[in-house]
Design goal:
4 helices, 8-stranded mixed beta sheet, M1 Pyruvate Kinase, Domain 3, 3-stranded antiparallel beta sheet, alpha+beta
Length: 192
């Protein structure tokens, strides 16, 4: 199976209702058309509100496998989220890159994703916060991500340039010591 980026999305800080309070977040990402510039700190125009957990050089870009979207569609329906019948658009999980062909168990820390005009390095799994519950529309979304292990992964920028939807990418193996799924499981156990 070829590895491909289906969508490149960015988000702007905006108010989000979380457990009865308003917080700022850029989790609501919007797909972009055409090439999007990539620099050391991520995609041009993408904001990260809480840089203690998102953003910076180590977590510049967030990738999420679209293979998991059907799962989220199903659990949102089971939770009776009001707009559950609508197909989830790319970027809905808060990802910058909606990808196919590379899952968490196949992405190792230090692996390089080589796109035609940039290179990104797998750096860490996403650890969901309370804002993910608000985005998904039900209070068990974080727990569901922790249980499923379908967390996606952060990327640092090895070589800037640009990236756009429809591009294939190549995986250049790093040391292959620990993959995202293993690391996420270990982090999840520490939190329970």
């Amino acid at each position: 199976m070829s590895m491909k980026v289906l969508s490149v999305s960015i988000g702007q800080a905006q108010a989000l209702q979380c457990s009865g309070r308003e917080v700022m977040s850029a989790i609501c990402k919007v797909p972009q058309f055409g090439p999007v510039p990539v620099s050391t700190l991520g995609l041009q125009g993408d904001e990260q509100v809480d840089q203690s957990v998102h953003g910076g050089q180590a977590k510049a870009i967030y990738a999420y496998p679209v293979e998991h979207y059907e799962f989220w569609q199903t659990v949102r329906a089971q939770a009776k989220v009001s707009e559950w019948q609508q197909a989830l658009p790319h970027g809905f999980v808060g990802e910058n890159l909606s990808i196919t062909g590379l899952l968490e168990a196949d992405a190792y820390i230090g692996d390089v994703l080589r796109f035609p005009d940039c290179e990104l390095v797998v750096s860490s799994p996403r650890e969901p916060c309370f804002k993910f519950n608000a985005r998904m529309g039900f209070n068990q979304a974080v727990k569901m991500m922790m249980k499923s292990g379908w967390c996606g992964f952060y990327l640092s920028v090895r070589r800037g340039g640009s990236i756009e939807a429809g591009q294939n990418f190549e995986l250049i193996a790093g040391s292959r010591e620990v993959h995202i799924a293993e690391l996420f499981e270990s982090l999840s156990k520490r939190k329970t």
